[in-house]
Amino acid sequence: MKLVNDKKKVSLVLGSGGARGITQIGVIQCLEELGFEIDEIVGCSIGSLVGAAYACNRVSELGNWMKTLTKAQVFRLMDFSNPRYGLLKGERVLNTLHEVFDDVNIEDLPLKYAAVATDLEKEEEVLFEKGSIYTAIRASIAIPGVFTGIADGDRFLVDGGVLNPVPINHVSRKNNIVIAVNLEGVPDKEVGMVAKLNPVALLQESYYAMRRRLTTLSLDKYSPDYIVTIPHNSAGIWDFHRSGELIDMGYSLASNALKV
User: Fold this and answer.
1) CB-CB contact of 67 with 247 (8 Å)
2) Segments of the chain with pLDDT less than 50
3) Bridge-based pairing state of the strands 37-44 and 9-14
4) Dist CA 11 CA 173 (whole Å)
5) Strand pairing of 177-185 and 9-14?
6) Listed residue (21, 19, 76) closest to 238, CA to CA
7) How far apart, in Å, are the Cα atoms of 42 and each of 10, 62, 66, 159, 257?
8) Nearest-CA neighbor of 62 among 122, 22, 30, 91?
9) What is the pLDDT of residue 143?
10) What pLDDT shows up at residue 148?
11) pLDDT for 149-174, tens place per residue?
């Protein structure tokens, strides 16, 4: 493990997990206050959005905007689609993001940025390292059955977290301190929970268990220097109205993970 008093250049890996991913704004705030220099971000799903805001030097603005959201405002961001292709189009969210940061080409950013999506037909990861940052975000956040997927040439792209909830394998700056945010932490105080579930909830929890195993395997294989772990039940997928609380949680958990 690289020590925190070494040269503090960081490759930051931001994971997928719906509203839990807002904790990653607090993680970034903590790293900045500790004097780390984030010069590479790899993100998938909500992590691609938070990472894009940071790369555009607008992560504080994203956090401030998120803190203003109420349940009603979150609902109004939902542009319902033909349910055959996904519940939401996702266009309203991206249009609203223009209030926070503009679309830019990834290759023009001041730091290295990559967003991860999934090619559903080929069952492989797709890495966005150039072109429109909005296109990269939209592909990376396309949660199957929630947001409509993206047709990209002969590919059909969905959420990067389908295959890789914490994409550490795409870090390229090997001499950096690697810090990963794991949004799939073991739920707090869930002993005996499975016996209380109905069939739909049981299917959902089985999916979450699979994601936790994928994440654990990735973390074990690539061994980042530091891991900030967010409990899975800290927020529901649409709990963006709790953004202020979640940002504070991310800051606190990052402080603990770095032992400061």
Assistant:
1) yes
2) 5, 191
3) parallel
4) 7
5) parallel
6) 19
7) 11, 18, 21, 14, 19
8) 22
9) 81
10) 77
11) 888 888 989 999 999 999 999 999 98
Count Cβ atoms within 10 A of the Cβ of residue 238 and give its class: 0-12 exposed, 13-18 middle, 19 or more buried: middle
| E strands, the chain, in order | 9-14, 37-44, 112-119, 124-128, 150-152, 155-159, 177-185, 226-231
Quick one: pLDDT at residue 49? Answer: 96
Burial degree of 7 (CB within 10 A; 0-12, 13-18, 19+)? exposed
Whole-number pLDDT of residue 203? 81
Query: Which among 260, 173, 193, 227 has a CA at the least distance from the CA of 24?
Result: 227
Under 8 Å between Cβ of 38 and 31? yes
Of the candidates 233, 229, 254, 236, the one whose C-alpha atom is nearest the C-alpha of residue 26 is: 254
Instruction: Judge whether 106 and 129 are in contact, CB under 8 Å.
Output: yes
**Three-state DSSP state, 87:** coil
- The span from the CA of 41 to the CA of 11, in Å, is 6
- Whether 192 and 32 have beta carbons less than 8 Å apart is answered as no
Catalytic residues: 45, 159
Name the region of 80 (left: φ>0; alpha: ψ -120 to 50; beta: rest).
Answer: beta
pLDDT computed for residue 217 by the predictor: 95
CB atoms within 10 A of CB 115: 31
User: Which DSSP string corresponds to 35-75?
Assistant: T-EEEEEEEETHHHHHHHHHHTT-HHHHHHHHHT--HHHHH
Q: What confidence score (pLDDT) does residue 88 get?
A: 61
Long-range contacts formed by 127-132: CB under 8 A, 24+ apart: 127/170, 130/105, 130/106, 131/105, 131/106, 131/107, 132/103, 132/104, 132/105, 132/106
CA 106 to chain centre: 17
